[in-house]
Amino acid sequence: MTTLPAGGPSLDEEPTLPPRAPFRNFPRYTLRPPRPPRASRRRTRMQYCDIVFVVVFPEKRRKKGETSFAFMCRKRGGQRNPAARARLRHQLGTHRTADRRPREIVMQQVTTLASGVCMPLVGLGTYKTRGKSLIYSVIKAALQAGYRAFDTAAVYRNETEIGDSLKQLLPEFGLERKDIFITSKLSPQDHGFEKSLQAFEWSLSNLQLTYLDLYLIHWPGVQKLKSEDAQNQYLRGQSWKALESIYKSGKVRAIGVSNYTVGHLEDLLKTATVVPHVNQVEYHPHYLQKDLKKFCDLKGIHLQAYSSLGTTVEVSPLLQDSKVLCIASRLSRSPAQVLLRWATQQGVSVLPKSTNTSHITENIQLDFDLTAEDIAELSGLGISQKYAWDPSAIH
Ligand SMILES: NC(=O)c1ccc[n+]([C@@H]2O[C@H](COP(=O)([O-])OP(=O)(O)OC[C@H]3O[C@@H](n4cnc5c(N)ncnc54)[C@H](OP(=O)(O)O)[C@@H]3O)[C@@H](O)[C@H]2O)c1
């Protein structure tokens, strides 16, 4: 039987407002995406060159000559890209709310997926976040801190509460549906064409939405099938066909997979008519998956990291890693911020999960740069330790 260990989806498993950062602390044009080496620049365009930084200034704090909607958008060769600018402006919304009040300051690092959809590089993870009042306070703290992306899944059994909370909170923050990015995932028990279509509709109705921003196949294996069973391959192929048809119907803006190895992706690409836009996998300095990252870059599949902080455990070896602690202390940042910035600086998006307001706030404050040496050191720890479930045995 396919095992579903802790850290991944198991069907059995399952405010005080934070202080606002001072205006001057926002580095407006200073953060730049790392420039890939020349040889791979063409292949990795999506990952590196479409990262933009968006700052929305409240009217009253705007200084003379400053634009209210500032962003940097570069295309290959470093030229400005007016078409992308216009698209982003439209996608991310204008700087005023419907009743003409200025919006909160929000700084987001975003990446453009191969579907053309703009996705924030930092989203809130919600695995094991359960209970109506907890979810409400977590989403409220996250919106206040500047999160605009939320990651859930059918097996987290919190879609309804997240939908309820967003419905209530978005107007309070002067936000609309189009201002946020919602991801959900197909449960391993719902593989197959028809079941996938139904599962998607179920998630949509739980979240009380008319469309999702991203829908992923959660796991390459099928619930209750053995890992080596060939039906896994057939059924997840059928699920992908269903996701393609949902995508073509316009009910989801991007589709992808999760926990897919290079083998699973190669298999999918043999018959796919849409290349997955995202592969959400465990990715951190203790579990690098270099080959998978290279493969995804080559195919234009955005790599999204989960368990960046080592999952929900008493003591996380990642957060206790001496190299991480050393860099954090030198930069006067927290170990969590160093781990998250290590990923986002490579163009990899992250989904830190927290129910603690100050953690939620600090996890999105990634307005600093690690040096190339820091990144190399963290990427060269030589540890290969998985903290979540392992899909490599799934046929
Ligand atoms: N696709 C998949 O199969 C899959 C698998 C696993 C996860 N995910 C997604 O990725 C998200 C994140 O992964 P994860 O849930 O495994 O956990 P994680 O984000 O790696 O770690 C969460 C743990 O870190 C703690 N934490 C958060 N911020 C912190 C900070 N600034 N300082 C110290 N500790 C901090 C949290 O405790 P506090 O609450 O006390 O802050 C919690 O115990 C999930 O919620 C889910 O959305 C997907």
Automatic annotation (TrEMBL):
Protein origin, superkingdom: Eukaryota
Gene3D superfamilies to which the protein is assigned, alphabetical: NADP-dependent oxidoreductase domain
Domain NADP-dependent oxidoreductase: start-end pairs: 124-380
Entry keyword Cytoplasm: no
Keyword NADP: yes
GO terms of molecular function: oxidoreductase activity, acting on the CH-OH group of donors, NAD or NADP as acceptor
Organism: Penaeus vannamei
Keyword entries, A-Z: NADP, Oxidoreductase
One Pfam family this sequence matches: Aldo_ket_red
Family: Belongs to the aldo/keto reductase family.
Protein name from the UniProt record: Putative prostaglandin F synthase-like
Chain intervals for the UniProt region annotation (Disordered): 1-42
